[in-house]
Amino acid sequence: EPEVTQTPSHQVTQMGQEVILRCVPISNHLYFYWYRQILGQKVEFLVSFYNNEISEKSEIFDDQFSVERPDGSNFTLKIRSTKLEDSAMYFCASSPGENLSYEQYFGPGTRLTVT
Amino acid sequence: SQQGEEDPQALSIQEGENATMNCSYKTSINNLQWYRQNSGRGLVHLILIRSNEREKHSGRLRVTLDTSKKSSSLLITASRAADTASYFCATDRWNNNDMRFGAGTRLTVKP
Questions:
Q1: Contact B97 A105 (CB under 8 A)
Q2: Tens-digit pLDDT profile for chain B (111 aa)?
Q3: How far is A110 from chain B (nearest CA, A)?
Q4: Beta pairing class for A110-114 and A10-13
Q5: Per residue in B14-32, is it b (16+ CB within 10 Å) or e — as a string?
Q6: Mutate which: B98, B100, B105, B106, vs A, most A CBs within 10 A
């Protein structure tokens, strides 16, 4: 069964450094998402991406964040200058398309630790 | 905010009992979905129910949706220890399929 994959599973970085989290969505999906979950808290929407552009973003997704689909398979989340409060699990998700089910398939997550 | 809010926050039951978790939301929705998350792991999709549906079943899971009360419930029948996890509801709006999650219910099923 196709699945969303994410790499790395755990990333440790120093405050102020740039990190890139990588996701490979399910191949025939058209919508891509990033969510984060701070330890012990709820899952929070960051951004959705469709047709090579951001379709919606939350208030969390400020200028420090960017997303890209550099090729036909990868979908990346970049944090330019990490802060301690960026430490969280980051989940990528994908869904088939606008006229189909909105069911989103989640990856296993990347645990980001900012020290 | 249209985020779902689950209650109870935590639920502890014995194996074999039924578990009922509730979710309320604030604005009109297109779909409501229930997800499961084992501790420290990713989210697993359980059921999607559309705004024009009232009830759906999947195995031991039963989901209801009452749009007049802006609420949904997830019933797990004949619970097993392996059902121990956090359960989240998530909603999306018309023409906008980003999802907003609730805080989740932590279910513990004791063997």
A1: no
A2: 346 677 788 999 999 999 999 999 988 888 899 999 887 677 888 999 999 999 999 999 999 999 999 999 999 999 999 999 999 998 887 666 577 888 889 999 999
A3: 9
A4: parallel
A5: eeeeebebbbbbeeebebb
A6: B98
